[in-house]
Amino acid sequence: MRPTVLMKAAMTLDGQLAAADGTSQWISSPEARRDGHRLRAEVDAVMVGAGTVRADDPRLTVRLPPDGGGDVKQPVPVIVAGKGGLPPDAQLFRRDPVLMSPTGLDLPGRVIIAPDSSGDRVDLAAGLSELYAMGIRHLLVEGGSRLFRSLLEAHLIDRAVFYYGPLLAGGVGAPLFQGRWSTLADARVVRAGVGRPLGESIRLDIDLVRRG
Ligand SMILES: NC(=O)c1ccc[n+]([C@@H]2O[C@H](COP(=O)([O-])OP(=O)(O)OC[C@H]3O[C@@H](n4cnc5c(N)ncnc54)[C@H](OP(=O)(O)O)[C@@H]3O)[C@@H](O)[C@H]2O)c1
Questions:
Q1: pLDDT digits (tens), the chain, 212 positions
Q2: For residue 22, which atom of ligand 1 is closest to its CA?
Q3: Residue 24 Cα, ligand 1 centroid: separation in angstroms?
């Protein structure tokens, strides 16, 4: 068993999550960012890759205006780490994160050790099963490009919410999925909803679960 997995990303209209120098704040509108906080409020845990911790130092907390829905339960932060190291002063270490890693880590937090066959990366399916065993039923994944690609390849994403900001990057920085698209037949067939405006951004909901 594993949690349901919702992927969330803010990107330019041509599919870039961040520029080559790592800058990405803010691609989407304030309305879209508020909507993203509401997504966090609906899940048990929020996951990011180590690359995102190093680039953005996120907090992954629910931050909504006082009238935004009363008391909110803060989701458990989950970091997928490899061999590249994590800054020990990262903000997430103040929030008792779950660290998913191929090896033990000398960092604050609960560790799920789940090596893949290379021993350098995390076996994400095994890691998600461990999260389920910890009581996590609904997981939001917020990036970045490498983690998104690995989850997609492993067929571990159920739904996605994309926020498109009114920007054309005009080149490649951090694409939505980091990896090669070899041939048309490799593309995933999904069910996309109708785009909804959120200020100057557009929210698109995508269902990746194949039926029938
Ligand atoms: N616009 C948005 O919505 C948004 C959201 C989040 C992030 N971003 C941007 O995305 C960029 C970071 O993306 P990224 O691709 O560099 O990093 P990432 O996907 O956040 O993290 C990838 C890292 O996770 C670790 N890892 C361990 N096992 C893995 C596995 N099975 N699959 C994938 N990763 C695994 C590895 O860490 P080690 O390196 O330690 O081996 C890997 O390098 C930043 O520029 C950030 O600003 C944008």
A1: 999 999 999 999 999 999 999 999 999 999 999 999 999 999 999 999 999 999 999 999 999 877 655 677 899 999 999 999 999 999 999 999 999 999 999 999 999 999 999 999 999 999 999 999 999 999 999 999 999 999 999 999 999 999 999 999 999 999 999 999 999 999 999 999 999 999 999 999 999 986 54
A2: 45
A3: 14
**Token pair in block for residue 168:** 């054309």
Structure tokens at 76: 């458990």
Instruction: Say if CB 124 and CB 150 are below 8 A apart.
Output: yes
Q: How far is the CA of 121 from the centre of ligand 1 (A)?
A: 12
* Residue 50: CATH number of its domain: 3.40.430.10
Confirm whether pTM is higher than 0.85. Answer: yes
Note whether residue 157 is domain-resident. yes
3-state DSSP assignment of residue 131 = helix
**Token pair listed for 193:** 């909803």
Domain count, the chain: 1
CA of 174 to the centre of ligand 1 (A): 10
Q: Is 151 helix (H, G, I), strand (E, B) or coil?
A: helix
CA 80 to ligand 1 center in whole angstroms = 8
Domain that holds residue 135: 4-180
Question: Could you tell me if residue 209 is inside a domain?
Answer: no
Question: Which residues, in sequence order, are CB contacts of 84 under 8 Å at separation 6+?
Answer: 50, 51, 54
Atom of ligand 1 nearest to the CA of 27: 1
Pocket of ligand 1 (CB under 6 A): 9-11, 17-18, 22, 24, 27, 48-52, 55-56, 80-84, 121-122, 124, 142-147, 150, 174, 178
